[in-house]
């Protein structure tokens, strides 16, 4: 009676003194099928010819990898692999042989990487639809899980919802379609270069391309333990920064006078307090207290954030005239009503910009965006005021008759300090 005995490479090495681990390729491509014509076993011929039935010239339609030589049993795993790590069955001999060759090349060898479905957890695929969310069977989804962490950060106020929405859109519109089906561990510089090229062909701006690649970089960086090393990212041409400008008080007032009466108070308040647009839009009647305006919350795009950007309430003392105007303006409102609204809805950022742009045009003043016209301008006005006072003190101290002499001749910068 003949018995088939599988002898491991380690035992053969001990018996014959030859290292069968290195001299014999590990693993085999096999099939459990029989020839559909003669019902005989298929025969392995060679790497080029594969597995065939010699008399009938037929080939099997499914294969498996016999991987006992790789030591899967030692870790409690089966010694036969019927699918790839992505869960795809081996329907062709070359597919099975290619995976076996990849397994032989891996150094160090990691058994978990080759188990059926192992790479599904690291595969880029389309975002989960609402219908799939209700499905009880939860498949691993590395991008969706990453975005869910970002969304949780929004709830914890660690990230802004508008930013997370942009990140999700970049993934959905550009990154996933380009890298769909790829294991994130296999993403290399050529793939990212090709993505950049596609974005250029689509006509995206330099800023948008930089944001898309930045999203992919952040995603890979957050999975550095999995990918082991960050791929190189292509350089994106630097975007010229928009020139920052500011207004003096006289120019601000000249433009505010051209703002229609029903909108003017919101701009007067921004000029006097330098509050951000998002904070002013979020003000309610209850924020007006004893001559002060207190900012408790802010809008980020269309989302109301329950705290300000610096995570604390901001209190600003108002001039008597502006305080009285605001009191009169909100007299008929309830405490929870928006301080500034249009038909019960708060002002939008674009509406504020449009009103200010039209006022600049009517005043024949070059347009300066609201955040520069008020916040940048407030800081610049203070600096100019201190400089003017400093020049005057220098002139008196040194006994000059020309206010510019002290600054041009005697004032030295920090690099000259000993």
From the structure above, extract its key features:
mainly alpha; DNA polymerase, domain 1; 4 domains; 12 strands; 44% helix; disordered N terminus
- State the domain count: 4
CATH class annotation of the largest domain = Mainly Alpha
Q: What's the arrangement of strands in the largest beta sheet?
A: 1-4-5
- Please identify the structural class as seen in this structure: mainly alpha
CATH architectural category of the largest domain: Orthogonal Bundle
Fold and architecture overview:
- The protein is mainly alpha-helical.
- It has 4 domains: 9-111, no CATH class; 139-227, Orthogonal Bundle (DNA polymerase, domain 1); 249-375, hpI Integrase, Chain A; 378-416, no CATH class.
- It contains 16 helices and 12 strands.
- A hairpin with a 3-residue loop joins β2 and β3 (50-52).
- α5 runs antiparallel to α6 (161-179), α6 packs across α8 and α15 crosses α16 (403-410).
- The longest helix is centred in the last third of the chain and has 29 residues, at 370-398.
- It starts with 8 loop residues before the first helix and ends in an 8-residue tail after the last helix.
- Mean pLDDT is 83; it is low at 1-9 and 12-23.
């Amino acid at each position: 009676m003949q018995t088939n005995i599988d002898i491991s490479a380690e035992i053969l090495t001990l018996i014959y003194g030859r290292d069968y681990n290195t001299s014999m390729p590990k693993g085999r491509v096999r099939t459990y099928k029989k020839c559909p014509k003669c019902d005989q076993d298929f025969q392995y011929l060679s790497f080029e010819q594969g597995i065939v039935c010699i008399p009938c010239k037929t080939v099997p339609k499914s294969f498996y990898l016999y991987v006992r030589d790789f030591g899967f049993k030692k870790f409690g795993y089966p010694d036969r692999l019927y699918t790839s790590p992505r869960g795809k069955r081996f329907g062709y001999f070359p597919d099975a042989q290619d995976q076996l060759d990849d397994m032989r090349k891996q150094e160090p060898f990691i058994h978990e990487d080759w188990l059926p479905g192992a790479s599904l957890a690291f595969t880029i695929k389309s975002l989960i639809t609402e219908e799939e969310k209700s499905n009880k069977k939860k498949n691993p989804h590395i991008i969706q899980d990453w975005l869910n962490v970002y969304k949780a950060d929004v709830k914890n106020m660690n990230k802004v919802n508008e930013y997370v929405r942009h990140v999700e859109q970049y993934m959905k519109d550009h990154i996933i379609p380009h890298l769909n089906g790829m294991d994130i561990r296999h993403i290399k510089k050529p793939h990212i270069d090709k993505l950049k090229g596609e974005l250029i062909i689509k006509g995206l701006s330099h800023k948008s391309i930089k944001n898309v690649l930045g999203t992919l970089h952040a995603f890979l960086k957050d999975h550095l333990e999995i990918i082991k090393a960050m791929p190189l990212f292509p350089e994106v041409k630097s975007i010229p920064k928009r020139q920052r400008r500011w207004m003096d008080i006289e120019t601000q007032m000249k433009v505010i006078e051209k703002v229609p009466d029903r909108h003017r108070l919101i701009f007067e308040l921004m000029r006097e307090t330098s509050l951000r647009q998002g904070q002013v839009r979020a003000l309610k009647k209850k924020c007006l207290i004893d001559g002060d305006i207190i900012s408790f919350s802010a809008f980020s795009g269309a989302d109301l954030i329950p705290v300000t950007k610096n995570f604390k309430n901001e209190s600003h003392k108002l001039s008597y005239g502006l305080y009285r105007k605001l009191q009169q303006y909100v007299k008929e409102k309830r405490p929870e009503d928006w301080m500034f609204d249009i038909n019960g809805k708060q002002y939008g950022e674009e509406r504020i910009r449009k009103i200010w742009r039209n006022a600049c045009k009517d005043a024949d003043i070059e347009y300066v965006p609201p955040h520069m016209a008020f916040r940048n301008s407030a800081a610049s006005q203070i600096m100019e005021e201190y400089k003017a006072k400093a020049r005057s003190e220098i002139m008196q101290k040194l006994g000059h008759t020309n206010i510019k002499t002290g600054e041009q001749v005697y004032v030295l910068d920090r690099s000259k300090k000993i």
